[in-house]
Amino acid sequence: GVFLQSDIIRQQRHGWSPAEIMASLAAILPLNVWVYAAQIHNLRSIGRCFVLQGGTHRNLAVVKAQVDFITAKVPDAEILIHPYAGEAGAIGAALAARDAWHEDRPSRFRGFDAVDRLEYRSTTSGDTTCVWCPVHCRRTFIDVRLEGSGGRAWSKVPLDEGWERIISGNACPKGQVEDVSEVKLVKREMEELRRAFPNVGDLVRKSAFRRSFDPS
Hints:
Layout: H1 5-13, H2 18-37, E1 49-52, H3 60-73, E2 78-81, H4 88-100, H5 112-117, E3 120-123, E4 140-145, E5 163-168, H6 180-196, H7 200-208
Parallel strand pairs: 1-2
Antiparallel strand pairs: 3-4, 4-5
C-alpha cells in the first residue's frame, strides 16, 4: 500500500527506470487514499459522483490512476476534477469558517492588506528534519515576519527577532517543536491525553490476556 522512500531505492537497485517508479507511485495513490486513509472498501456505498481534489491531481498520471481505480469499482461513475484542485482544501476551510461565523463574535482576520504585505520564507533541509523519534520526519519551517515575536536565535535554522515560526510536515505533536524542553512539555501533554482518553484496544488486549485462574 504505502510506497516508502526505501521502496524507491530498492526498486532502483532492481533496475526499475524512473518512469516505472513514477508510474508505480501514481498507481498506488488511489489505494492509499480510499482504502488505507479513508477506510472505504465499497466505493459504490458513497455514490457515483466523485470530485478529485488536492494538488496531486494536477498530475495527469494520478488522475488516470484514480479514474481506473474508481471505474473498476463503480463502472458508471461520474468523475470530475476540481477546477482549483490544489486550493480546494483551503476553499473548504474558508466555507467552514463562514458557516461557523456569528455576528456577535469579532473576527481575528487581519485583513487583505495585511495578507498582501505578508513576508515569509520556508526552509526544508537536513536542519529541519525532526530528531525526536526514529521516523525522522522531513519538516518544513515556515517563518513569518510578525511584530513583537521573539525569534529563535538558538535554532539550527536561526530566526531573528520579529519573526514567528510555524512547523509543518510533522507526523506527531513532538515534531511541532525544536527544543528539548519543549519536547518534554509536549510528551507530558500527550501522556495526560492518553490518561484522559485511554486506548480501548490496549484495554481489551490486557483484559483478554489477564490471568483469571487462581491456582490456590
